[in-house]
Amino acid sequence: MKPIDPRLFSASKATSWLLASLVALALIGVALTVSIAYQLSTFVVEVFIYQKLISETLPSLLLALLLGSLRAILHFAQEAISSFASQRIKSDLRREGLLSLVVKPGVNSGEWSYLLGPGLDSLDVYFSKYLPQLVYTALVTPLFIGLLVFVDPTSAIVLVFTIPLIPLFMVLIGLVTKEAQERQLNSLTRLNQHFLEVLRGINTLRIFNRIDRQADVLTDLSLEHRTRTMRVLRISFLSGFALELAASLSVALMAVTIGVRLIDGDLSFLTGLFVLLVAPEAYLPLRQVGAQFHAAQEAVAVSGRILDQLKSTSTQAATSLEITDGLTVLVGPSGSGKSTILRSLASQGGYQPQLPMFISGTVRENIVMGSDFEPESYLRAKALSKITELSDDYVLSEACSLSGGQMQRVNLARALYKALRTNKVLILDEPLSQLDPNLVSEISSALASLRSSGFRIIAASHQSELIRLADREVRIG
């Protein structure tokens, strides 16, 4: 797993200033930690070794308390900065992700509903816990090693030889965790996608009496996700215990060497105590990195998928068209950007999207869509779209029994109604894809008659009947 994806710097400026802030806070934190350790060591040595009165050594204790308070404030500042930056980065990624979905449709909507929703929330732990400790590990641990080289070279050698144990455990555990985390994320996205597909097709499932079967499928997917999640949690707890054990044994080994040298008189008590207070701080960032490793793994997986989508979108050439007289048909493979082009033109006339959409209301309300009602345009739109079999007062809702073709023709009537009332411009995205051959032929003829009456029509279609009628054919992709 990459500690941080370099693409985050271009996706959000907050990433750059967060790292800069963390570096500054880490350096200040090292200075405060060393000062606190020295003041406490001085206080203990003067009281217990030199038998001084507490009143005489009180300045050292008070200074240590003051520095400790400053360190607490510094920790609070780091948490606040990280939290604020996390919100900014999540907002930037969510915005860019949503924009990319508009530019490049056809992606797995169930997966993206998770990635841009609760998935991005995993970045909170990543930026507020994992990344700060990663920066501290890169800066603080080497600084403490360098400090011990000057204060007590023997302890520095012990530290240098024991500290790699923690990264070694992290690598070994990470090899197991990465695969488990990926499986857990994949199972969740499959569950989201299947649930979304069930909601979309619930009317069809009810007609064929298959709802109970889908309930069983969702139950199986939920159990699979629960099993994989519990596996990840077990690995997380075991890895946390392993890292804590490695750090504790390393500090204990250093304490033993210091104790032996104190007995032999090779080390002063002040130096030994100072080293014992400083040494755990050298291990702490690595321990914290390990503790937050699994949460960070999910965050990196989520942000990586979003950044991959942004990258693929940015490399896709944008295409624009002008609406000219007659009928223009866009042809090309699915995913080539035809729908994107039509959406960019949607505000210029009556627009029919590829996926039928409706509001909860009557057929008339869905065609008129809140605009002024003109009976002549309304009746003509219904006739041209061949939905005269639907009464004006038929209510469209989640429980209605309209077929996909009927819903598509209601959407076509809506676009026709707007075009008839405004500028005679039609933008149609696969207007015939769900219709039977007879309706395809009839509506194609209707569109041809509209073209003859001065309509400007631009449509994306795979239907040969509509392509043959085109005055201009534009290939996309």
Query: Quick one: biggest sheet?
Result: 5 strands, parallel
Anisotropy-based shape: elongated
- In what order do the strands lie side by side in the largest sheet? 2-5-6-1-7
Helix proportion: over 70%
Distance between the termini: 35 Å
Strand content: 5-15%
- Counting DSSP E segments of at least 2 residues, the number of strands comes to 7
Describe the structure in your own words.
- This protein has 17 helices and 7 strands.
- With 477 residues, it is mainly α.
- The radius of gyration is 33 Å and the shape is elongated.
- Mean pLDDT is 80; it is low at 314-319.
Task: Offer a concise description of the structure.
The chain is mainly alpha-helical. It is built from 17 helices and seven strands.
Element layout with pairings:
Elements: H1 7-11, H2 14-49, H3 54-103, H4 109-115, H5 123-151, H6 153-162, H7 165-200, H8 202-207, H9 211-264, H10 269-291, H11 293-314, E1 326-331, H12 338-345, E2 350-352, E3 361-362, H13 363-368, H14 375-384, E4 395-396, H15 404-421, E5 425-429, H16 437-452, E6 456-460, H17 464-469, E7 472-475
